Amino acid sequence: MWRCTGPRWSGGRPGAGPEGPFGQRLGWYCAERGEERESLLPAGRALAFAALGERRCLGVRRGGRWIVCPYGAEIDGAAAKDQCPRCARLDRSRSVAADTMADDPRPYGVYLAYFGPGLLKVGITAAERGTARLVEQGAVAYAWLGRGPLMAARRAEALLGSALGVPDRFAKEAKRAARGALPPLPERAGELAQLHRAARRLAGWPETLDPVEFACGDHAELFGLERIPAVGVVELGGLTAGAEIVAEVVAGVGADVYLRLVGEAGAEGRGAGGGSGRGGSGTGGVVAVLDARLLAGWVLGAARGPVTTVPVRAAARGEGRGEGEGGQEGLF
C-alpha cells in the first residue's frame, strides 16, 4: 500500500536521485516493501485521484529512510502536519529547527528570501542543501548573506531580527496573496540588495561568519508564476475519505500546487462540480491552490467522478508573521 509523503522538489541531478528535470513532485512510501518513489507534477499534467481509507501518520524520517509510526495514528485531514504528536516530538528531539541539535558541525548559509513587496525574511540552511530550502518555502527571489558555523549563522539571523526587524517567517496566506501582484525582477532584486547592504553594515556581525557578496537568484520561471492568475484564485481545503480532485496542474510554488479544476467552482462551494465552465482545455477554468502537504498520509486511488469534490473556499488574504500550519519543518 503506497501512501503519499507530500510535496518535494527534486530531479535534474546526475547519479543518485530521481530522473527527469528538477521540479515539484509528490513522494510515496510503501511500508510493506520499505520502498519509496516520486511522481513529477509538471504544468499540464492531468490529475484525477480520490482519498482512500484514513489519513495516517507517516512516522519519522531518519538517515534518509522512513521509520513507520508504531501507533498507526490517524491524523486530521485538514492539518498540514503529517505526524501524530508523539512522532512529532521524536522528530524535533534532534532538530536544528527546534534548537535541539546545536552541535551540528556542518557549515550553514544565512539567506534573505523575497516573497513579495515588503515580504522579506531571514533564514538559515545547511550549506550542503544549496537553494533547496528556498525553493521548498516558495521564495520568489533570494540572496545569500553569509556562511559559517551553525551558531554564528543563528546569531546573524537573530541580529537581523532585533536590529532591523526582519522576520524569520511569514504565513502561507501572505505568501500566496503576494504572488498575484509581483513587481518586475529588477525591483525584486533592488529590495533584496537594499536589505543586504543594511545587514552588512550592522555592528555585531559574527566574526566566524564569512560574508557573501550580493547576488540575486530568482525562481519565478521555475515556479511558473506567469501562469498563476492575478485574481480569482480559490483554495482547496483538506481531504476526507472519498474526496476527489480532478484537475490539471498549472504551476507549483513551494508546497503549493496550482490546479485548474475540471467543471465550475465558486468560492465557499462544496467542491467544483456542475456548470459549463469558463473555457480552457476542457476544464472549468477555475484555478485553485492546494497545500500539497495535505496529501501526505493518504492512500490516493483513481477518482470515480468527473469533478473535484474537495471543499473550495475563497483565498485568504493573510498578513503578518508565522509560517501557518506545519511551522518550519524541514528547514535544514
Topology overview:
Blueprint: E1 2-10, E2 23-30, E3 35-40, E4 46-52, E5 60-62, E6 65-67, H1 85-92, E7 108-116, E8 119-126, H2 132-136, E9 141-148, H3 150-164, H4 172-178, H5 185-200, E10 210-211, E11 217-218, H6 220-223, E12 234-236, E13 244-253, E14 256-261, E15 287-291, E16 299-302, E17 312-314
Parallel strand pairs: 12-15
Antiparallel strand pairs: 1-2, 2-3, 4-13, 4-16, 5-6, 7-8, 7-9, 9-10, 9-11, 12-17, 13-14, 14-15
List keywords for this structure.
3 domains, alpha+beta, 17 strands, 5-stranded antiparallel beta sheet, globular, 332 residues
Radius of gyration: 20 Å
The tally of strands reads 17
Q: Helical region count? A: 6
Largest sheet features? 7 strands, mixed
Helix content: 10-25%
Alpha carbon gap, first and last residue: 29 Å
Beta-strand content estimate: 25-35%
Overall form: globular
**Averaged pLDDT:** 88
Numbering strands along the chain, what is their spatial order in the largest sheet? 16-4-13-14-15-12-17
Number of domains: 3
- The helix-strand sequence is EEEEEEHEEHEHHHEEHEEEEEE
Walkthrough of the structure:
This protein is of the alpha+beta class and 332 residues long. It folds into three domains: 2-41 and 54-92, no CATH class; 108-223, no CATH class; 227-314, no CATH class. The protein is built from six helices and 17 strands. It has helices at residues 85-92, 132-136, 150-164, 172-178, 185-200, 220-223; strands at residues 2-10, 23-30, 35-40, 46-52, 60-62, 65-67, 108-116, 119-126, 141-148, 210-211, 217-218, 234-236, 244-253, 256-261, 287-291, 299-302, 312-314. It has a seven-stranded mixed β-sheet, with no helix packed on it. A hairpin with a 4-residue loop joins strand 2 (23-30) and strand 3 (35-40). The two termini are 29 Å apart. The model is unreliable at 272-283 and 323-332 (pLDDT under 50).
